[in-house]
């Protein structure tokens, strides 16, 4: 493998103990020439050859000792599969090509995880209809919030389609991803808009590579395109000349890109243009585009990350956290049926701990999907270890009380709660053109984990971690246990040494790595955390900004009361004295001191655990992660010192344990 140009991640098939001389692949009921079936067969050949050292052929395998059969059966759920095996065959049954491909990858996963070929059995159907990755890749090759090199799609304003693109599509299909937005939501510089002649041929090529693996390509759009590209004077969604411009443009786009899934739009946020400029609503904007794209079967994914970053919050009523709900809830039911709202997991911005957005499930008559971020913007830049699947599980398991049953976020975003067929999960992706794709080898667990979870929200964080470890490394069980434990603890460790009790931020402005207690970038109006010599936290109760009231009553009551509010969110919802006793029995200030010391100590512990793997994994992997742990420890130390000394000086309260606070 020394000639490898990039890592094969979890598809780096390794030889198992069981050797098989000959294996036959048979396709029954599916069109063998279908592009997705063809990809599946190719993958099987590669995997079976490597795993069993077998000679793999196609056709009737009667003469061969072992067969893998891909069988069509309309009784299997859409994009689902069934696996059964016996001494003579593995049978993969599906009703459609994507299901067959996922079944093939599932069989390979089982084999890679050490399941004997005679003992394969699984029945699966996707929890979410849409399972998407959002790239924040810019046309110049840079990546917004990218921590693993540059874009592998774009170099110097040109599109690259090569073997790496194919491998990328394989990886995504292997974890069940069926939609990918290739460009940043912040679409700037009209000369490089992808909906122009300059790029159609290459985008088409890319869309075909994706289609080979059952993936639809989507594009981010600039709402002001009629001005920037069309030379119009406005982009008012209700203006006829604007609508006509879009009709012509979208027709041209679909003539050139017949496989396009649709558009993702960030409007009226952080400097992006949108319908507000013309006194129109978000629904006006989204529906106009929805209507225009409808004849082509496309969809509009409209982001709810809409807020005014220049707002003055000194009146203690204005609150960024309220914005999504305030702008979108009252339009519930007005969105057209090919429009879907994409909602970040929390009301702020991908902090290490936030409450769940009340818009999810707050909307009951609108298509909605969840947006999370596996790019570790606020969670350690793929330097610090932070396995995010436990956070995503918490989000999915959250009970909204939006109706009697079927009311968790998983129910809402899968479409089960309100019967939507446009529903699902999207992640801001953490990849780049680094050899190992994700900067830190261990950050690939988040890439893998998001995909697996979006396909099956019932999987546990541990199951996903173990699968990924088994497929990536070849470790003895004690080492697998240790690495699993490191991953599972990492999010809480990161939380401990960074911002406490749900307050968030305290991170360097703009860069978002390392501590800066007062450093919220929109802090023109004062500190975000509102700490003074007596206390800290943002009052979001009915007496404060009223944000807590955006939840259904059961949750609102809990969040509104500092005695009931979970400790880990209490400063998100309340301004409390440093001497306030948490439910844990500790005071706020003692909690801050303790968690920061613990976080640093535990980071040291997991870094030391990594050293036990030296010699047991390839040295480039070992060194890559080892180096990052060194940086993580420096970061954790810095956070611990800065946060503790800031609050010691502010409060004047001694640490009960008299540890050294600098
Ligand atoms: C965050 C992030 C930006 C990004 C934005 C978004 O604010 O820092 O880089 O553009 O989220 O989600 O649109």
TrEMBL record:
<dbReference type="GO" id="GO:0033939">
    <property type="term" value="F:xylan alpha-1,2-glucuronosidase activity"/>
</dbReference>
<dbReference type="InterPro" id="IPR011100">
    <property type="entry name" value="Glyco_hydro_67_cat"/>
</dbReference>
<dbReference type="InterPro" id="IPR011395">
    <property type="entry name" value="Glyco_hydro_67_aGlcAse"/>
</dbReference>
<dbReference type="GO" id="GO:0005576">
    <property type="term" value="C:extracellular region"/>
</dbReference>
<dbReference type="InterPro" id="IPR017853">
    <property type="entry name" value="GH"/>
</dbReference>
<dbReference type="InterPro" id="IPR011099">
    <property type="entry name" value="Glyco_hydro_67_C"/>
</dbReference>
<dbReference type="InterPro" id="IPR037054">
    <property type="entry name" value="A-glucoronidase_C_sf"/>
</dbReference>
<protein>
    <submittedName>
        <fullName>Alpha-D-glucuronidase Agu67A</fullName>
    </submittedName>
</protein>
<feature type="active site" description="Proton acceptor">
    <location>
        <position position="377"/>
    </location>
</feature>
<feature type="domain" description="Glycosyl hydrolase family 67 C-terminal">
    <location>
        <begin position="438"/>
        <end position="659"/>
    </location>
</feature>
<dbReference type="GO" id="GO:0045493">
    <property type="term" value="P:xylan catabolic process"/>
</dbReference>
<dbReference type="Pfam" id="PF07488">
    <property type="entry name" value="Glyco_hydro_67M"/>
</dbReference>
<dbReference type="InterPro" id="IPR029018">
    <property type="entry name" value="Hex-like_dom2"/>
</dbReference>
<keyword id="KW-0378">Hydrolase</keyword>
<feature type="active site" description="Proton donor">
    <location>
        <position position="270"/>
    </location>
</feature>
<feature type="domain" description="Glycosyl hydrolase family 67 catalytic">
    <location>
        <begin position="116"/>
        <end position="437"/>
    </location>
</feature>
<dbReference type="GO" id="GO:0046559">
    <property type="term" value="F:alpha-glucuronidase activity"/>
</dbReference>
<dbReference type="Pfam" id="PF07477">
    <property type="entry name" value="Glyco_hydro_67C"/>
</dbReference>
<feature type="active site" description="Proton acceptor">
    <location>
        <position position="349"/>
    </location>
</feature>
